[in-house]
Amino acid sequence: MTLPTPTARREAPNPLMERAAALRGSGGMAAVRGVAPVLVALAVGLLLHFAIAPQLPEFYPRVILDIGINVILAVSLTMVNGFTGQFSMGHAAFMAVGAYTAATLVYYGSARLMGTADFASARAHAGVLSTMLQGREAAFFTLGDGIFIVALLAGGIAAAVCGYLVGLPSLRLRGDYLAIVTLGFGEIVRVIIQSQTTDTLYDVEVIKATPWPKLMRYMGGPVGFTGLPSYTSLFWVWSLTVVTLVVAFRLKVSTFGRAFLSIREDEIAAEAMGVRTTTYKVRAFVIAAFFAGIAGGLYAHTIGIQLNAGELAFMKSFDIIIMVVLGGMGSISGAAIAAGILTVLPEALRRPPPVDLPWFLLVMAAAWVAALLLIRRPKWWLIAVTALGAAYAWWQQPTLASPLMFWTVAGSGVLILLFAGRRVPGLIGLAIAVTCYIGVRSAAERAGIKLSDYRMVLYALALILMMILRPQGFFGVRELWTAWRVQPLHPRRSRAEGGESGTAGRVPTA
Amino acid sequence: MTRIPSQPGPALLDVRGISISFGGLRAVQDFNLTLPGGRLHGLIGPNGAGKTTVFNLLTGVYAPDTGTIDLGGAPLDGLKPSARAAAGLARTFQNIRLFPDLSVLDNVRIACHLRTTGSMAGAMLRSASNLGQERAILERARELLAMFDLLDRQHEDSRGLPYGDQRRLEIARALATGPKALLLDEPAAGMNPQEKVELRGLIRSVMERFHVAILLIEHDMGVVMDICERITVLDYGRTIAEGTPAEVQRDPRVIAAYLGDPADPATGE
Predict the structure, then answer these.
(1) Of the listed ranges A69-83, A183-197, A474-488, the one predicted with least confidence
(2) Which of A451, A458, A457 lies closest to A433, judged by CA?
(3) CB A283 to CB B111 under 8 A?
(4) What are residue A31's phi and psi, to 5 degrees?
(5) Residues of chain A contacting B120 with CB distance shorter than 8 Å
(6) Residue A488: per-residue pLDDT
(7) CB contact under 8 A, A271 and B80
(8) A71: three-class secondary structure by DSSP
């Protein structure tokens, strides 16, 4: 009889990873997959910066820029609130850490490296890829750009470090408790920044004579960091937005993303299945904080922004949470679309864009038909009401593009959302909602009501309706391209193909 | 069917004297268990006897007040549940705990995660090794689902599965962690007689194919007496009997625990 030799514990054989080694992809394709998102990101950024932005009316590029920053914020928060199900209420604080780190480095770094009096002027120091300022000659890449990029990255890293520090104590906390910790963290960040000295140094010689630790105190305090160069451009924002989206999506569909999701689904079961839940919660915090920090750096150097910690307090965190909730907890495309809508909506309510009625009518009708086709058990009375309404509108004004026709279709769209809102696929629900907004707006115009006076009320009303009609958000956990799959409401019954074949197959054959 | 060797092998799961109290309640007292590899051990007892508490102690949900737990010669004491799963201890839950909003396939794929060694950066870049890892996970998950006849439902949300399918998915998910010992908590609960018959075959075939030791909590005596080689009986947190099904069935203390003690005036007789 041989006794097992008590040698040092060897690496246990791992059949899964042995198989994985056999199934490895090719190195060449891996390189393509690694580089492709960067190329796409650059292409999107260049296209927006050079081709699209100059074509648009004055105000639009700035809205597109804000959308990009909000998409980064919403998608990064989705990794914490949506993937792991932890409720973080301090996302704007990570943004603030990134913003102030980047701002300090750009402002004082420029002063030290350039040494000229106009060190904080983007007009003088930005390359062609940077800044939204129009009509200037510049080199392709300048020292200012270099400082800006390094500062953005540093802001992301500083925020990630903070994410780790917040993640650590929150290991044992769940739900409300974690929310309070993150809320507290947000307030701490705000108060620390605001309690610094009010001044910002602007004399190059003084800045050069002051050591860095001391410089870091001159961030404007409660007044705000004034005089930052506005390097942020559509190119930088949207390149980084694409990178964020790709990283988030690749994480979600990987084994790590599934580990994140399992924590949200059932933390005890996830732990029992070998998912190191505390580790992954912290990782989610760190990654999310990193991207929030980058978004903060971009925000700080946007033209017309006066960086102030008071703006990046609890209310800002709340805005980002609303985007995540509207999009659907755990849906990246949902969060991105919600970020887009919630950025545009207040602006659109302020200054309504011109609307082509027949075109919108067509979109509305298409969405309406699709919704009726895709929900189980279509509401026949709804179809009847709409058909009657359309017939009446045609009888009154025999043209498809009449306001009456519009109201018939929009009204029945609202009814669909009211009576079957939970079952309508996300994208179609979204289309109906947007058309409803346009209906409200055109009606208000005709009645002579200035909607801009009521925009925050309308904004809040839209959110309330959303939570009542569709609490899971537009896409639930799904993505844009799988959102059309309507989940059955009840467990499907076993197929009625005869008990014998249906049950015999259940016993696995050894 | 497996032949039961008369001589038990070396202990795979070795539990010595674990106890835990909740406040004044001694939920489990001095529990011992020696489970050799490839064996099936039953754990029975009336409601509230502490069976599930034993599972929670073994898997690290609770820390025992006293006692030690070894798996394959390595101590598990003080490890978190995830580390115990990595050491080779997998479980199912009495009240099913699947990941309800995730697909059947993802439920099993998540359980493969602990055997992966790739990095998160690899996943972000979709490196060659990350791709191989994802392929291997997919292959293994599909294999398991095919074995449990759940493959044609792989894309459905697990919350939508019928009850029996959910129970079987839990076993498939536990096996995906690559366990040495499998703890099944009332796998037959809520099943109809036909499903229970199938479950017996399923448990036997799992033992043969995966060479795992199984510790089984079950209320259904038909299932327990049929498939278990040895049985431990718990009552009020104490082990009152241990032996083969035939021995346990004859034990007067077991009969008393289940039917009431004829000598005890409180139970009449």
Answers:
(1) A474-488
(2) A458
(3) no
(4) -65, -40
(5) 251, 256, 283
(6) 40
(7) yes
(8) helix
- Report how far residue A43's alpha carbon sits from residue A246's, in angstroms, rounded to the nearest whole number: 14
Nearest CB neighbour to A255, from listed B113, B160, B168? B113
Give the C-alpha distances (Å, rounded to integers) separating A32 from A36, A37, B126: 6, 9, 10
* CB-CB contact of A506 with A494 (8 Å): no
Closest residue, chain B, to A11 (C-alpha): B87
Q: Are residues B158 and B30 in the same domain?
A: no
DSSP H or E run through A180 = helix A175-194
Q: Which residues of B touch A30 (CB under 8 A)?
A: 125-128, 131
Nearest to A255 among B61, B116, B160 (CB): B116
Tokens for A184, please give them. Answer: 């507290």
Q: What is the CATH number of the domain that holds B254?
A: 3.40.50.300
Q: Given CA atoms A162, A165, A169, A175 in this order, what sign does their dihedral have? A: positive
The answer to whether residue B53 is domain-embedded is yes
Over the stretch A422-441, which tens digit does the pLDDT of each residue have?
A: 667 777 777 777 777 776 77
B244 has pLDDT over 50: yes
Q: Do the Cβ atoms of A219 and A100 come closer than 8 Å?
A: yes
A15, A33, A275 ranked by CB distance to B82: nearest: A275
Q: For residue A22, what are its two tokens?
A: 């056999």
Residue corresponding to tokens 């000229």 = A116
Is B251 within the bounds of a domain?
Answer: yes
Residues of A in contact with B71 (CB under 8 A): none
Residues B268 and B184 in one domain: yes
Look at residues B141, B159, B177 and tell me which one is the last residue of a structural domain. B177
Residue B66 pLDDT: 94
B18-56 confidence digits (pLDDT tens): 999 998 889 999 999 999 988 899 999 988 889 999 999
In chain B, which residue's Cα lies nearest the Cα of A23?
Answer: B132
Tell me the two tokens of residue A506.
Answer: 């259940």
B177: closest chain A residue by CA: A273
Question: Is a pLDDT exceeding 70 seen at residue B197?
Answer: yes
Residues B192 and B267 in one domain: yes
Q: Which residues of A touch B113 (CB under 8 A)?
A: 255-256, 258-259, 273-275
Mean pLDDT, range A312-338, rounded to an integer: 90
| B1 in any annotated domain | no
Residue B103 per-residue DSSP state: B
Predicted TM-score of the model (pTM): 0.86
Domain boundary (B133, B154, B177) is at B177
Nearest CA in chain A to B83: A274
Of A16, A26, A271, the CB nearest to B128: A26
My answer on whether B141 and B201 are in the same domain is no
Six-digit token string for A327: 């999009």
Q: Which residues of A touch B128 (CB under 8 A)?
A: 24-27, 29-30
Q: State the nearest Cα–Cα gap between B78 and chain A, in angstroms.
A: 15
Same domain, B81 and B137: no
**Structural domain boundaries, residue B108:** 99-177
Count of domains forming chain B? 2
Q: Is residue B3 part of a domain?
A: no
Q: Which of B86, B148, B159 sits opposite A508 (nearest CB)?
A: B148
pLDDT tens string A218-246: 888 888 998 899 999 999 999 999 999 99
Residue of A nearest to B149 (CA): A506
In whole angstroms, give the CA distance from residue B83 to residue A204: 56
Average pLDDT taken over every residue of chain B: 88
Answer whether B128 sits within 8 Å of A30, measured CB to CB: yes
* Stretch (H or E) spanning B20: strand B11-22
Query: Smallest Cα–Cα separation from A287: which of A161, A374, A406?
Result: A161
If asked whether residues B107 and B166 sit together in one domain, one would say yes
For residues B29 and B47, state if they share a domain.
Answer: yes
- The CA-based angle A472-A478-A484, given to 5 degrees, is 95
CA A417 – CA A178 distance, rounded (Å): 34
B217 and B236: one domain?
yes
